[in-house]
Amino acid sequence: MTEHPGPLPDPHLSDDDIIIGGGRVPGADPPKPATLWSDTVGWAATRSAQILLMAAVFAGTVWLLVKVSVVVIAALVALILAAAVYPVVRWLKSKGWTSLLATAAAFIGILALLGGIITGIVFAVRNEWDSLSSSAVEGWRELENFFRASPLPFDTAAINNAIQQVTEVATSGAFVGSALTGITAATEFIAGVVLMIVILFFFLKDGPKMWNFALRWFHGETRARLAESGDRTIQILGGYVRGTAIIAAVDAVFIGLALALLGVPLALPLAVIVFVGAFLPIIGATIAGILAALVALVTNGLVVALIVIAVVVVVNQMEGDLLQPVVMGRTLSLHAIVVLLALSVGTIVGGIFGAILAVPLTAVAWSVIQVWTDTYQVGHDPVLGEDPVNPKDWVAAKSTMAERWKYQQMRYQERLSRTLHIARGGETAAKEGKAGRKAQPRAEE
């Protein structure tokens, strides 16, 4: 009797693999040797090193930006102004204006508007600044005497020390030093202004082309996210500037009229301060209201000062509940604590300019984070062309912000259509299943 030889060894079968029903099933992998970084402590150390490295890179980037603050501030101001004015350029182009002519008209218009506003602020406040500051100081002294005479526990020494510290910081030190970093010298200031004007012109003229040129070197989901990030950045910056200017003008008009009707002197410079303070959310309105109340206390008495405070509170409440939702919509969907933290960090890093730019840049950062945590379609881009874009294809260079907005709407529509299709498919399958279950007993009969 001949013995049948056993199955030939499988060269692809390891010692840990087993055969079940003629199929190979991988066995357990051999345990890996323990290393210094394989346990929990090693994992935590690795992650800590990565976090420290990222923090060092971030700190180095901030340090570099502070060192070239003239260029950074000029570019940011130009970008914000371009985002606010570009709808005018687009509207003029739709009316048949050439690109150069529309850009020149919007460019000259925004420079004239800014020049007029700055000139008006200087002339309105400069001649009355001494009276305004002395009235504010005298008003604070009267308020201090009132509380000192009252039975309420009021520590005037602590408040005076706090005010003195704030005054020292605001007049000589980190605040003014950081606010005027890079532009204390006249030459650097002029260079920064000229650089901002030049960058603004080219942003208005070729901004969409520049951005589309950068997008051509990306493809797939990355390009979709970058395109959406750029669109949202322009929408937020432009909407913030336009909305804040409208809200500031409304606040200044209402509070200025109230001060004039109440007979409070220096109503015009106080209204101007209200307008400027509106560009510092929360803090600016509070400071302007306190200043107006102190002046009214000195010149018109306690009753008028309380009325001024009531007017400021009502106007600010109207701004928060009515104007901001209507004018800005969801442009600045940030919590108040986030705004305060952004203002604090911006003031520490960039002084006055940092405080002004902190809130819109924080809103942009949050919007971009939302973009990069959302789901996007990949593949063919209906605006920028095939994916990846051939450098010889000029469709990408010719697409505009408005066209990418259509792309954005198409992307959302595509996602909505898929969702509805899946939902309807599920309903259809459920109905077919019910119909099949009803027909089955009849067939059996």
Automatic annotation (TrEMBL):
Residues 429-445 have a biased composition (Basic and acidic residues). InterPro entries: AI-2E-like. Signal peptide: none annotated. Residues 423-445 are annotated as: Disordered. Its main location: membrane. One of its GO terms (biological process) is transmembrane transport. The keyword Ribonucleoprotein does not apply. It is found in: Cell membrane. It holds the Pfam family AI-2E_transport. One of its GO terms (cellular component) is plasma membrane. It is a multi-pass membrane protein. The chain crosses the membrane at residues 49-66, 72-89, 101-125, 179-204, 240-260, 266-283, 290-314, 334-359. Keywords: Cell membrane, Membrane, Transmembrane, Transmembrane helix, Transport. PANTHER family: PERMEASE PERM-RELATED, TRANSMEMBRANE PROTEIN. Belongs to the autoinducer-2 exporter (AI-2E) (TC 2.A.86) family. This is AI-2E family transporter. The lineage of its organism: Bacteria, Bacillati, Actinomycetota, Actinomycetes, Mycobacteriales.
